[in-house]
Amino acid sequence: MFKLIGITFLAAILLAGCTTTPTPPEEIISSPSVSNGNASLNWSAPGFEKKTVAHAAKTNTPPVVRSNPPAAVIPKPAPVVTWTSLNRWASEHKLGAPHFLSNTPVTTYAISSSNGVMVLSIGSLGATWNGIELNLGFGPQFIDDQIFLHQLDLQKNLEPLLCEPPLTFGTNRVIVIDPGHGGSNTGTHSVLDGRFEKEFTLDWAKRLAPLLETNGWTVFLTRTSDVYVTNSDRVVFAEVHHADLFISLHFNSGDPDEKPNGLETYCLTPTGMPSTLTRGFADPWSEHLPNNVFDAQNLQLAVLVHHTLLRAAGMEDRGVQRARFMEVLRGQKRPAILVEGGYLSNPAEAEKIESAEYRQKLAEAVAAALK
Question: Is the pLDDT of residue 341 over 60?
Answer without folding.
Answer: yes
